[in-house]
Amino acid sequence: MSARARGRACTHLCMRARAHLTGAGMMTRVSSQFEKTRKVSGPRALQPSQWGMLCPSDTPEGEACGLVKNLSLLTHVTVDQDPTPLRQLCFDIGTPSALFAPARARARVRAQTMQRAY
């Protein structure tokens, strides 16, 4: 074990996604490294800088209440890299996604979705 990893209690999480929704829920989870046994409310509270990024109501009950949070629906995670190689890879493997389609195709998908809703 490296000297850098010795102080960390958990550096990874083994994900056993039996359903797509379970996997998506696990990927939006944000865990604090604060001790669960301490009864301090500061780290468990939603900080003002987290509004709009973390869900204020979705947290487990019990000792982990407030220490495990989930990303909100409107959170948009970005990386400082060119998205072109990822788009090309998605196209090459045949991913049917409206996010990578041109604007005209996205509008068509949006219109079809609206028709199904009514």
Features:
31% helix, 5% strand, 118 residues
Summarize the model shown.
With 118 residues, the protein is mainly alpha-helical. Among the domains are: 41 residues, no CATH class; 34 residues, no CATH class.
Describe the model.
- The chain is mainly alpha-helical and 118 residues long.
- Among the domains are: 41 residues, no CATH class; 34 residues, no CATH class.
- The protein has 4 helices and 2 strands, in the order H-H-E-E-H-H.
- The protein has a two-stranded antiparallel sheet with strand order 1-2.
- The longest helix is centred in the last third of the chain and has 15 residues.
- It is elongated, with a radius of gyration of 19 Å.
- The N terminus is likely disordered.
Ordered list of secondary-structure elements with their pairings:
Layout: H1 3-6, H2 20-27, E1 29-31, E2 68-70, H3 84-92, H4 103-117
Antiparallel strand pairs: 1-2
Count the DSSP helices.
4
Q: Poorly predicted ranges (pLDDT <50, ≥5 residues)?
A: 1-6
Distance between the termini: 57 Å
Largest sheet: 2 strands, antiparallel
Beta-strand segment tally: 2
Radius of gyration computed on alpha carbons: 19 Å
Task: Please report which band the strand proportion falls in: under 5%, 5-15%, 15-25%, 25-35%, 35-45% or over 45%.
Answer: 5-15%
Strand arrangement across the biggest beta sheet:
1-2
Query: Structural class of the helix and strand makeup?
Result: mainly alpha
N to C succession of SSEs: HHEEHH
Could you estimate the helical fraction of the residues in percent? Answer: 25-40%
Q: What is the typical, i.e. mean, pLDDT?
A: 70
Overall body shape: elongated
